[in-house]
Amino acid sequence: MMTEPFGHPFRVDRQVHGYAVVVRVAGEVDAMTVRELRHEIAIGLALATPPSPVVVDLSDVDFLAAAGLNELHRGHRAARAAGVPLRVVAHHRHVLRPFEISGLAQEITPCATLAEALAPRTRTPHRRFALPVL
Q1: Angle between helices 34-47 and 66-82 (to 10 degrees)
Q2: Which helix (H) or strand (E) element contains residue 70?
Q3: What is the 3-state secondary structure (H, E, C) of 1-61?
């Protein structure tokens, strides 16, 4: 009996949006595909101009394994060291749930849309309250 070779549905590409870099991922992110994701995140970090982000768009991801979560965490640490924000786009439960369970959502808050991830973020101004002089 002849068997067909295993076809792993996965695709990753990179796009530049102004000074930001978007890494679009589709298919299954697991131990077999994480190497390509690592490579594209590293290129994105090299191309990005702070304070513009590197955005990893997981909108078309069907499955996110622990290897993918680990790679996103590693990318987040590398981005922080480079002074570049790393943002993630995710809105499907099968991607958001592993973020929540692993605790990664506390470090990288997933954005619902690419537009949200690309939007400039400003720091919240500190409110200063003056006490009345008595």
Answers
A1: 20
A2: helix 66-82
A3: CCCCCCCCCEEEEEEEECCEEEEEEEEEECCCCHHHHHHHHHHHHHHCCCCCCEEEEEEEE
- As a whole number of Å, the CA-based R_g of the chain is 18
Residue 64, SS3 per DSSP: strand
Per-residue DSSP letter, 82: H
- SS3 for 83-107 is CCCEEEECCCHHHHHHHHHHCHHHC
What are the Cα distances from residue 91, in Å, to 33, 97, 121, 123?
A: 21, 10, 20, 24
d(CA 67, CA 71) in angstroms, rounded, equals 6
Report the C-alpha gap between 44 and 46 in whole angstroms.
5
For the chain, which residues make up each domain, given as ranges?
A: 10-118
Structural contact between residues 56 and 99, judged by C-beta atoms closer than 8 angstroms: no
**Model confidence over 62-94: pLDDT tens digits?**
999 999 999 999 999 999 999 999 999 999 999
Fold for 10-118, please state it: Transcription Regulator spoIIAA (3.30.750)
- Which residues of the chain fall below pLDDT 70? 1-8, 122-134
